[in-house]
From TrEMBL:
<dbReference type="InterPro" id="IPR050553">
    <property type="entry name" value="Thioredoxin_ResA/DsbE_sf"/>
</dbReference>
<keyword id="KW-0676">Redox-active center</keyword>
<keyword id="KW-1015">Disulfide bond</keyword>
<dbReference type="GO" id="GO:0016209">
    <property type="term" value="F:antioxidant activity"/>
</dbReference>
<dbReference type="InterPro" id="IPR013766">
    <property type="entry name" value="Thioredoxin_domain"/>
</dbReference>
<protein>
    <submittedName>
        <fullName>TlpA family protein disulfide reductase</fullName>
    </submittedName>
</protein>
<dbReference type="GO" id="GO:0017004">
    <property type="term" value="P:cytochrome complex assembly"/>
</dbReference>
<dbReference type="GO" id="GO:0016491">
    <property type="term" value="F:oxidoreductase activity"/>
</dbReference>
<keyword id="KW-0201">Cytochrome c-type biogenesis</keyword>
<dbReference type="Pfam" id="PF00578">
    <property type="entry name" value="AhpC-TSA"/>
</dbReference>
<dbReference type="InterPro" id="IPR036249">
    <property type="entry name" value="Thioredoxin-like_sf"/>
</dbReference>
<dbReference type="GO" id="GO:0030313">
    <property type="term" value="C:cell envelope"/>
</dbReference>
<feature type="domain" description="Thioredoxin">
    <location>
        <begin position="200"/>
        <end position="344"/>
    </location>
</feature>
<dbReference type="InterPro" id="IPR000866">
    <property type="entry name" value="AhpC/TSA"/>
</dbReference>
Amino acid sequence: MRNLIAIAILVLVASCKQEPQIPKDYAVVHGTIKNVKDSINFRLYNPETSKSFVIEVDESGNFRDTLKLESPAMFNAVYNNIFVLYLQNDMDLKIDFDSDKIKETLTFQGNGEEENNFLKFKSKHVSGLFGDDYKAYLGLNEDDFNKTTDKFLDDFHSELDKKAAVLDSVFVAKEKADMAEFKKSMIAQHQEQLEINAKLGKGKPSPDFKDYINYNGGTSSLADFRGSYVYIDVWATWCIPCIYEIPFLKKVEKEYADKNIKFMSISADQPKDEQKWRDMIKDKDLHGIQLLADNAIESQFLMDYYIYGIPRFILLDPQGNIVSYDAPRPSEDRLKELFNSLNI
């Protein structure tokens, strides 16, 4: 009898033992967005593979989707703004935020919350390093730059080590590798910023250009516009952020029409696309001095200003010297503040 009871207990225990769960070969992403925007879906973009997932958002702001991932990955999550999202198969992650203030309201719950909460810490930590003007950090002298960077890295790794027990090991390894690359990038950018400050600092003579095609006929050189301030917009017809600035630029041009300042737009379009450039000037009713650079983004003038992305705005004084090699955009209130500080 005792043996029968023992056997019965063993059978019962065995029957109650849970089978090990097989990891899912997909991730579930769901949540709610406050202040939902009409006709906008939640988009996840992988910058390494250029692949995207588009998740439908209903009129109440709810969304849910199942994503099959080839490997763990970082995504740019886009909905009225951008934040970084880490996903891997077997995650079930709830994401909630207010689209008008994502940074302040973004929350994560479920499998994957620890990794994504760490990314929130990382984003805030990097913002603290850069401050209001990242060029000020990159332009520090050697000793101050090294001290600031080392403290940033020490604090980052301390937080990562503290959280390692609850973070996925693949995520931890990726974060360590990414931060090593970040350090290399900052060192390289620091050296370049010192070069930029030496060549393009306030009061330095501006790099020059000659004989750019003028929309109104003939060619023009930078020296032709000495005697007044010159606000330069480096743009292109294919550049969406450049086109976004056009209405703001028109407004500033109108407000300062009778002041001692000229507004110059230099297109980085290819010379072969001259007609496309001319058509947009006409279609958009662009004003000011409209010039076409001689070799697109590789024009020497653009390279001398270390322009890797556009739009870029430059302000020169009446003597042709640099006021700001990276001036505020027309859409920024800081531009008028700068103009007013110069009594333009």
